Amino acid sequence: MPITLRFIFISEADKPTVTLKIPEDMLFQEAFVLAAKRQGKDAGILTATYPGGSPIAGGTVGEVSEKSTNIHVIDPSIVGGLPALDSGALTV
Amino acid sequence: MPLRIRDYGEAHLKTDDDLFYFLQCATVATPKDPGWGDRAAEEVYALDRFAEYLRFLEKDEWFALRATSASKTRWTGKVRRGGREWDVELVLKDAYPHVPPACRIPELMHYTDRKVDDASLGLRICDMHMEKNYWWDEHASLALYLKREVSYWVQSVVKDMRGKGWL
Which of A77, B1, B38, B142 lies 20 to 30 angstroms, CA to CA, from B83? Predict the structure, then answer.
């Protein structure tokens, strides 16, 4: 049975979304690679998480979709560092 | 006239491949071919025999796999080494068995550069790199791939990680 997964590239400014309808027995990683390609990205440097931030280790599309059909995709090269700290926060 | 008994066994079994002849498949068919049902059944049979061999002779059943669907082109499971285990995923692509399976062990792949780009999985374990010759042929099975590539890859990566104190 096909399942619809929404990959939301949350580290991009305009939060683009790639929606894929894929068989439930397909590996999640294959769907992730497909979504990254649609977005012109290399899946090797991206991280997929459930909404809330827990990482998706792998498994099938069916197994992942049982927890959520919305997938957050983070590109660590875009997320960047922390905002500049208030100098007062550094005083002891 | 008495029967002449000849031993065709060990004299002809000179290489590892010969010893593991039972991990080969007779049917050559891709997942899109009508003969794939037979090939898939042979793959499962070979995997079962390999698991039996590991369980009873080597006493080290270092992998556990299950097909994610009836077509048996996607497999997930665990690989074990030194009391630890990691997720493993395998894909038999549309061109299989003319090309070997693609394998991914996500957690271990973070710690090594022994990986290559893959069209389906993004990255897969770097196989065929420890061999003098490209040994894969269309009669080789998923079980033989596990034995000849995945097991050595896991061993070498875990050894490296232990050496560096990461495990």
Answer: B142
pTM of the complete model = 0.82
| pLDDT tens string B82-99 | 899 999 999 999 999 999
Q: Which residue has the tokens 């022994």?
A: B114
| AA identity, residue B61 | E
Is residue B32 situated within a structural domain?
Answer: yes
Number of domains in chain B: 1
Domain range spanning residue B39? Answer: 10-129+138-162
Q: How far is A13 from chain B (nearest CA, A)?
A: 24
Query: Given an 8 Å threshold on Cβ–Cβ distance, is A25 in contact with B107?
Result: no
Domain, as residue range, for A68: 2-90
Q: What is the CATH number of the domain that holds A61?
A: 3.10.20.90
ipTM above 0.95, yes or no: no
Out of B69, B76, B119, the one facing A58 most closely (by C-beta) is: B76
Residue B51, beta-bridge partner list? none
CA–CA separation, B138 and B140 (whole Å):
5
**Best mutation target, A1, A22, A27, to test chain B (most B CBs within 10 A):** A27
